[in-house]
Amino acid sequence: MGASACARCQGKAVYTRRYSGESLCASCFKDSIVEKTKRTISKYDMLNYGQRVGVAVSGGKDSLSLLQVLHGINRDKRFTLVALTVDEGVEGYREEAVDHAANLVRKLGVEHILVSYKQLYGFTLDEALDWKDERDMSSCSICGVFRRRAIDEAAVRAGVDVIATAHNLDDYAQTFLMNLLHGDADRLAWLDPTILDDDFPLRRVKPFMEIYEEEIALYAYFSAIPFQSVSCPYMHEGLRSEVRDFLNEMEAKHAGMKNVLLRSSLLVASKLSSLEKGFGSIPCSICGKPSSKGTCNVCTMKKLVAEHSKSVLSPSRV
Length: 318
Known about the structure:
The chain has 318 residues and is of the alpha/beta class. It has one domain (34-277): HUPs (Rossmann fold, 3-Layer(aba) Sandwich). Helix content is 46%, strand content 10%. The strands form three sheets. A five-stranded parallel sheet has the order 5-4-3-6-7, sandwiched between helices. A two-stranded antiparallel ribbon has the order 1-2. It has a two-stranded antiparallel sheet with strand order 8-9. Strand 1 (15-16) and strand 2 (23-24) form a beta hairpin. The longest helix is centred in the middle third of the chain and has 20 residues, at 139-158. It is globular and about 60 Å long.
C-alpha cells in the first residue's frame, strides 16, 4: 500500500502516525479518535448508564473536542452531558474561549454551567497574580488550585455524578515527569485512572488520556472546531513548559516515546495506589471542604494572595 493511501478506506491519507506507521484520511482519522476515546472509557469504566456527566469545557481545542466526541458517542442518550466552564478572569484571553464554549454548547443543545473566579473568590486571576515579581511560585500552580475548586463548585451546582476533563496523553506524561522532578512521589498514585475516593464523591475521568495532543488538535481542525487566536499569557511560566518541550523533542527523535512514558506512569501509579491505605481527608478548618491536612490548598492560596496582591479583593464566598 502506498504511503499516500488511507490504511482503512484506501482514500488519500492526510496524516501518518509515526509511532505506528498508520496512515489515515481525514474521515477515518476522526473515526479513530472517537474509537480510541470509547476504548479508554470502557477500559477504565469511566462513564456509566444514567449518569449526569460534567464536561470541563474551557473553550480550548481539547475541551471542545472532548465535548463533541462525547456528544457523538452519546447519541443513544445513555448519559446526560452538562458543560462546566470556568472564567478565570484573564483579560484579552478568556473572553474568546468562553464564547467558543458557549457557541458549541448552544449548537449541541447541551446544558451549560458557567462560574467565575470573581464570583467564587472575589478576585480575577489577573488580580491574584499581580505580585508576580515577588514570588517563586508559577502562575499555573496558583491558577490550578483555584481552577480545580471552581470546577468542583460548578459540578455541584450542575448535580453531576462524574467530571470528565480533556487532559490528553501529553498532559499525563508531563504530570508524571513533573511529580518526579518535584520529588512529589506520593502524588504519583493519583495518576491511577481507576482510583475512587469516598471522600470525593465526584470522580474525575480523562477520556483523552491515551491520545496525543497533536492528534486532538488535528481532530479539532478536521471538525472545524475553532482555535483560540491568542495563548494564555501565563502559560510559559514554571516547569511544565520546559517538560513539554523536552517530551516533544524526545518524541521527534524517538517516535512512540510518549506512549512508552504513559505506560510506565500507569504501571508506577497502579503499584503505588495499591499500597495506599486510602486517600482519606479531613474537613478544612476554614471552609469545611475536604483536605489532606488542616487547611485546604484553596484557603492557603487565598491567604497568600490576600497578603501579597496589590489589588483590592472582595470578600470571598468559598
